[in-house]
Every structure is written in structure tokens, then in C-alpha cells.
């Protein structure tokens, strides 16, 4: 046996022992999260609901209620519901568009989303706006070159070209009617 072959066998044996040792330890690993924590992480998001109103800056919604606020709230975006509730919008993959695009603010909207228990923020998963004729339109951003939708203002994820705000006349999905 040459010197290289003699060195490989112990390395392979050590790698195999480590692999199977890790498998055996993982069940008893005190550093592993408890099963209850894993189960909590795997819980599904709350059921989507319909939220209707107008998306506005928080400072404007508070001003209508004669509530003074400081400059820090100037860029916070909220849904002011038809019932008068103020719901902050989470700036995630879908909600970020309201922070970026003034065309989506100060107009009637139907938002499909959910709120986690104990968290006031609305996770938006679908945006519907209304055109001048009062027709509901599904609203997203679109790349005409690649024919792919996007959900915030940015260069196209495919071609890096310009995208446009797209409105498609569409009813609400059955699961929120």
C-alpha cells in the first residue's frame, strides 16, 4: 500500500464515525431545541382575512383624530379601515410597496392578509385597488420583457430592466369572500 492510501483509510473511518456519531447524538443533544419550540415554529400563519380601507401615512391618520406625533412616525404606513381602525402594515415582501409607491397610498384598497396574535402589524399577501370606475383590480408590478410579477419597486429580478405597476380587473378569491 502506498503512503497516500494509508492516509485515506483513517480519514474515511474518522468521517464515517463522526457522521454516525452525530446521528446518534442528535436525539440526545441538549443543545437541540425542545420539541415544543420546533412545533411552535412549524405552526401555520393565521388564516388570511380581508381588510378594507385606505393605506395612508400614520401621521395623517393620527392628525385626523387630533393626535399629535413626532417626526419618527412620518414614514410609517397604516391601513385606515372602513370602520376607523388603524392597522400598521408590515414592510415585508408584499407590504413594502406601500412604503415605496405613492400610487398605492390614499386610495381605496382591499388587502388580503393576516395578523399574528399579539402583533398589531398586518402581513399583506395580496393587494386590490379600485380604478376610477370603481372596479376592483388585482395590483402588482410587472416586467413586460420577462412576463413575471413582482411585489415591490425594484429592477426586474430576471433582466434587471424596468417594471411597471399593473392593474388587472379581478374579483376577490373565494377563500376571503
Please, could you describe this protein's structure?
The chain is an alpha+beta fold and 177 residues long. It has two domains: 3-41; 49-176, no CATH class. 24% of the residues lie in helices and 28% in strands. The chain contains four helices and eight strands. Strands 1, 2, 3, 4, 5, 6, 7 and 8 form an eight-stranded antiparallel β-sheet that branches. Strand 6 and strand 7 form a beta hairpin. It is globular and about 45 Å long. The protein starts with a helix and ends in an 8-residue tail after the last strand.
Write the layout of secondary structure elements.
Blueprint: H1 3-26, H2 35-41, E1 49-57, H3 58-63, E2 77-81, E3 86-88, H4 96-100, E4 108-114, E5 123-130, E6 136-143, E7 148-150, E8 164-169
Antiparallel strand pairs: 1-2, 1-4, 2-3, 4-5, 5-6, 6-7, 6-8
Number of domains: 2
Shape: globular
H/E element sequence: HHEHEEHEEEEE
Number of H- or I-type helical stretches: 4
Structural class: alpha+beta
The amount of helix comes to 10-25%
Rg measurement, Å: 25 Å
Instruction: Indicate the proportion of strand residues.
Output: 25-35%
Main beta sheet strand tally, sense and closure:
8 strands, antiparallel
Mean pLDDT: 83
The rounded distance between the terminal residues' Cα atoms is: 75 Å
Tally the beta strands.
8
Unreliable stretches (pLDDT < 50, length at least 5) are 3-33
Features:
single chain, 177 residues, alpha+beta, 2 domains, 8-stranded antiparallel β-sheet, 4 helices, 8 strands, 24% helix, globular, disordered N terminus
Amino acid at each position: 500500500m502506498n503512503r497516500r492510501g494509508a492516509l485515506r483509510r483513517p480519514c474515511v473511518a474518522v468521517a464515517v464515525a463522526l457522521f454516525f456519531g452525530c446521528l446518534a447524538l442528535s436525539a440526545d443533544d441538549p443543545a437541540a431545541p425542545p420539541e415544543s419550540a420546533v412545533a411552535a415554529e412549524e405552526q401555520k400563519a393565521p388564516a388570511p382575512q380581508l381588510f378594507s380601507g385606505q393605506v395612508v401615512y400614520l401621521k395623517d391618520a393620527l392628525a385626523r383624530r387630533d393626535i399629535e406625533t413626532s417626526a419618527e412616525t412620518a414614514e410609517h404606513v397604516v391601513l385606515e379601515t372602513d370602520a376607523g381602525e388603524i392597522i400598521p402594515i408590515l414592510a415585508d415582501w408584499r407590504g413594502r410597496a406601500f412604503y415605496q409607491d405613492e400610487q398605492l397610498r390614499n386610495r381605496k384598497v382591499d388587502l388580503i392578509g393576516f395578523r399574528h396574535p399579539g402583533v398589531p402589524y398586518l402581513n399583506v399577501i395580496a393587494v386590490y385597488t379600485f380604478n376610477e370606475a370603481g372596479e376592483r383590480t388585482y395590483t402588482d408590478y410587472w416586467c413586460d420583457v420577462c412576463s413575471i410579477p413582482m411585489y415591490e419597486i425594484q429592477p426586474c429580478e430576471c433582466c434587471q430592466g424596468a417594471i411597471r405597476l399593473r392593474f388587472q380587473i379581478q374579483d376577490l378569491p373565494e377563500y376571503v369572500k
